[in-house]
Specification:
By secondary structure, this protein is α+β, with helices and mostly antiparallel strands. It has three helices and eleven strands; from the N terminus they run βαββββββββαβαβ. The chain has a five-stranded mixed sheet with strand order 3-9-8-5-10, with no helix packed on it. β8 and β9 form a beta hairpin. α1 runs antiparallel to α3. It is rod-shaped and about 90 Å long.
Amino acid sequence: MPVPAAGDRRRGRLLGAAVVLVVVTVGLLVALSESSPATLRAVTPADGATLAAPPPTVALVFDREVAPREVHLTVTTAGGDRVTVGPPTVAGTTVTAPVSISAAGGYLIGYHVVLPGGREVSGVDRFRVTAAGPGVPATAVPDPAAEAAGAATGHQHGGDDPLSLGLSLVAVAALLALLTVLVRPARLRD
C-alpha cells in the first residue's frame, strides 16, 4: 500500500491548521458583532395614535446610535397611496422620513431595518389624522430623475459592516486554500 510523502502530510497539517484558524476567526467575529445590539424603543407617531394635525415626518427611535445596513421606511394611506416624499435619513438614534399628508384619515407606517450583524427590525404601525394637512410642500416634491435612480424610493442601503467584510475575506482565503490542495496532485511513495 502506498504511503503519502512527507510533503503531503505537511500540506494536510497546514490545511487542518487553516481550517481551525478560519473557524476560530469566524467565531470571534460573530461574538464581537452580537454584543448588545440596538433595539427599537419607539415609533413616532405611536401605533394607534390620533393626531389633530399631520406630522411632517415619521421616526423610528432606537435605544442607541445605529448605522443600519438597510433602511426601508414608507408611509401610506389606508388605501395604499404613498405619502412618504423622500428617502429615510439616519441621525444618531433616530431614523426619519419626510411625509406629506393632505387629508384626514388612517395611515400606515411600514418599516424594515437591517442592523449591523444582520439583526432585523420590522413592523407596521397605524395612526389617524383628524384634520387635513397643507399638502406637499414645494421643496418636498420628489425629483423624477432621483426617483428613477432609486434615491427616493422609501428605503436606502448602507455600506457593508466589518463583520460581512471580515467573513467575506475569510471565505475567499478558505476557498483559495481548498483550491490549492485540490489542484495540486498528491504524490505517493512506494
